[in-house]
Amino acid sequence: MIEKKFFYIKNIVPKYVKILIVSKKQNICSIKKLYKVGQKDFGENYVQDIVEKYNKLPKDIRWHMIGNIQSNKLKYIIPFIYLIHSVQKLKHIKIINEIGLKFNKIVKCLLQIRISNDPNKSGIYNEKISNLLDYSKNMTNIKILGLMGIASFKEIKNVENEFLYLSNIYNKLKIKYNFNILSMGMSRDFISAIKYNTTMIRIGSIIFKK
User: Fold this and answer.
1) Which of 97, 156, 200, 210 could make an S-S bridge to 142, C-beta 3.0–4.6 Å?
2) What is 2-208's CATH number?
3) Which class for 36: exposed (0-12), middle (13-18), buried (19 or more C-beta within 10 A)?
4) What are phi and psi of 97, to 5 degrees?
5) pTM of the prediction?
6) Contact by Cβ (8 Å): 63, 44
């Protein structure tokens, strides 16, 4: 029962850590079950899935874009998206700001930072972060609220080193750039992410897996 699993996680996660339910590949019924017990934050990987679910579900759900950005499709979600987690390029910042201006909306985003050597994981390298942040500060319709990272599938010691790395970057930047979100930790490693001061975990399989 997904509601029971959700409450189990909610009871062991500190109140200052926001739980984002990764609802990719889940049906409307499953999302409604969690919504009815108070969950409002859901994340999807693809624009078309966010749009479809947005149209079918209550409008007070806060939708998060957590997958790779599809620049040519952003216009479909900008009007209602709550937070985009995966900004990695100057191109993304420019496009999001442009579309936000068109819809008279300040679009909240996170920078996705590369914290793993896994070639399948993407993100910005440390030395490029400040340049993107300084550029975005001059934009009127995009606001970078913090950082996001995806750990490797390695043993927990390696994963914790990756979380420590991202946490240190966040702590160095949070005052200067007024950050308040550090999004790291998934179903397999959220306990470790909490140890390293995450403020948001992204969980799915631990809730939905039978």
Assistant:
1) 97
2) 3.20.20.10
3) exposed
4) -65, -40
5) 0.95
6) yes
